[in-house]
Specification:
This protein is an alpha+beta fold. The strands form two sheets. A seven-stranded mixed sheet has the order 1-2-5-4-3-6-7, with helices on both faces.
Length: 600
């Protein structure tokens, strides 16, 4: 019989358990941790325990905390205030004292909202915790055009009252500052809450969700394409109505109830009614969806709340670390310049804008080469240039106005107001007027390199990347990075290995004695639960939206159906689906070009 299977020979050491807990917090599965231990120790029989022992040891360490999950979660949030005085959280309990709703945002999120809170994207996702509580993510875009998080919420249900509570706490956290625009997936409960609390905010419904619903409610080929043009293209109000009525006639949808309801909410999705409002450069909630997908790399639907919150922190820190990398790149390097005929203007933008936004601006300067001023009027206090694309008579002429006293420039395509950067028509007019300085109104503070420097250079800035309960883990990680060099050198020769083992044995005996003298280490959240929120119980499991569980017979039928060859719903060919269809990708690329051309 193999000795390593005997109970008396199976024991996971405190050091290995600490390492396993650290890897668990980093998002590794227990089976992956076990495989690491196997390779690290040189075989299954060298680990000192079985895989089942590892599972049991990790579960035993969590059991006491998981039994008081709500209490532990709130204590965890309370502990963040010791590290981040600007941290904010709020919660609600029901008549049974069970946790129902939870909202939180750290100081960095509040600071980001102060700078970039002009546009808010609001969406929810599922399967992020053991109670199936939907996670609400409130995001925007920063000065690099990257996603930044303004706050999180866990909710018990998705009623209008619940979303009203979330928005109330969000506004309380952000000192009642309203965004200029908000983008949602069209959920009626969300819409009701926004109408009640933010009636003055311009509200847009996600175009992807509208087109997806169109496929379900209007079964006529070509309808979705026509609807997409009405969503994305800018028409006069009268022309929009004419095109809408013609579309209904062409596709036999005059009496379609869904189409009637969609038309009644056209001010929330049609570019005709929304152009000139900044939505973070997007017409869909893809920024929120990508954030949800990013967070789910670190999440599991079996996680207790306190553990899920730690993983949210880890994902958020990873996102912000990427932002810090962009900031460092802007500081330490310079883009290649003089790629356009307006090199002076190009250099000015490169010196003040972040790299990502400078490249967007330079693209517009490059495209301005195709445009000419076909008419020029000089008035008393302003210049008016009529711009037309070269050899493209079908495109609408654009009018650019330059106010000489105010040093301000505007274009009737509303690209600056909609996208946040100056359009190609503005640059064509600047070239015609021989302007060597950027008009002041087309410089947006939200894109400046320096807009976060005051915060980032402060001594407390790095707190954004610290997990508040990781004091002991920081000590462990600090020594572990050095300890990794020990086996590296020991494996070089038998003599080095022997001397290393002698030194290690002596050092371990000395350290063990020191620990016994000092006494028990200070406890983290895993070791002791404070009584700050005593009496609050765990949430009830939530029945979320989505497909209900299938019976065994239906599962068997679906598995039989799945064995059939796939047929792509776009090109109607087999061997692939719409997600990797080349025809669909080509159409998407063409449609993106069409969207851009609509501002010509």
């Amino acid at each position: 019989m193999q000795k390593h299977f005997l109970r008396s020979h199976r024991k996971i050491s405190a050091a290995e358990l600490e390492q396993a807990n650290l890897l668990k917090k980093a998002g590794m599965k227990t089976s992956e941790i076990w495989n690491l231990f196997v390779h690290q120790n040189g075989g299954w029989d060298k680990v000192g325990c079985t895989k089942k022992d590892l599972y049991n040891s990790l579960a035993a360490g969590r059991r006491g905390v998981d039994d008081l999950d709500a209490n532990t979660t709130l204590t965890f949030l309370q502990s963040k205030l010791d590290i981040d005085p600007e941290f904010f959280y709020a919660y609600m309990v029901d008549e049974e004292s069970r946790l129902t709703h939870l909202f939180w945002a750290d100081g960095a999120s509040r600071f980001d909202y102060e700078l970039f809170g002009d546009s808010l994207v609001f969406d929810s996702t599922y399967k992020t915790n053991i109670y199936q509580m939907p996670l609400v993510v409130l995001v925007g875009s920063n000065n690099h055009g990257m996603t930044c998080v303004f706050g999180f919420a866990l909710i018990q249900n998705e009623t209008a009252e619940t979303y009203t509570w979330v928005l109330q706490k969000f506004l309380e956290c952000m000192k009642d500052k309203l965004p200029e625009t908000i983008l949602t997936d069209g959920c009626r409960s969300m819409n009701k809450a926004i109408e009640d609390l933010m009636p003055s905010v311009v509200h847009r419904t996600c175009s992807w969700h509208i087109l997806n619903n169109a496929i379900k409610h209007v079964h006529e080929e070509g309808f979705v394409g026509e609807l997409r043009n009405l969503i994305k293209r800018y028409y006069s109000v009268d022309e929009f109505d004419l095109r809408w009525n013609k579309m209904l006639l062409d596709y036999n949808a005059e009496n379609n109830e869904w189409a009637k309801a969609l038309y009644s909410s056209r001010h929330q999705w049609a570019d005709t009614h929304l152009r000139g409002s900044y939505f973070g450069g997007s017409t869909a909630t893809n920024r929120c969806e990508s954030m949800n997908a990013f967070l789910k790399r670190f999440l599991d639907e079996k996680l207790p709340l306190w553990r899920a919150l730690q993983h949210y922190d880890h994902g958020l820190a990873a996102l912000r670390y990427g932002e810090l990398g962009k900031h460092a790149a802007d500081k330490l390097s310079t883009p290649v310049l003089k790629r356009t005929s307006m090199s002076e203007i190009e250099e000015q933008f490169a010196s003040i804008y972040t790299r990502n936004m400078f490249l967007e601006v330079r693209n517009q300067i490059t495209r301005s080469e195709k445009y000419n001023v076909v008419r020029y009027h000089k008035l008393k206090a302003s210049d008016i240039c009529t711009i037309e694309k070269y050899l493209s008579k079908d495109h609408q002429k654009r009018k650019v106005t330059f106010k000489r006293i105010e040093k301000e420039m505007s274009c009737d395509c509303y690209w600056l107001e909609t996208k946040g950067i100056p359009c190609r028509h503005v640059f064509a007019a600047m070239k015609h007027l021989h302007l060597s300085d950027i008009p002041r109104n087309i410089i947006k503070n939200r894109w400046l390199k320096e807009c976060k420097d005051i915060y980032l250079s402060s001594p407390d800035a790095q707190r954004r990347f610290i997990n508040p309960d990781m004091i002991s883990s920081k000590r462990y990680g600090g020594i572990n990075s050095q300890a990794n060099l020990f086996p590296y050198y020991c494996k070089k020769s038998p003599k080095v290995q022997q001397r290393g083992m002698e030194l290690m044995s002596t050092l371990l005996v000395e350290m063990q004695k020191m620990v016994e003298d000092v006494g028990e280490e200070e406890k983290t959240i895993n070791g002791a639960v404070q009584e700050v929120h005593d009496g609050i119980k765990e949430p009830h499991p939530v029945a979320t939206k989505g497909r209900p569980p299938q019976s065994k017979s239906s599962q068997q039928n679906s598995s039989q159906k799945s064995a059939k060859a796939r047929i792509c719903r776009v090109c109607k060919k087999s061997g692939h689906d719409y997600r990797n269809c080349k025809v669909r990708k080509r159409k998407c690329e063409e449609s993106m070009e069409e969207d851009d051309d609509d501002f010509e």
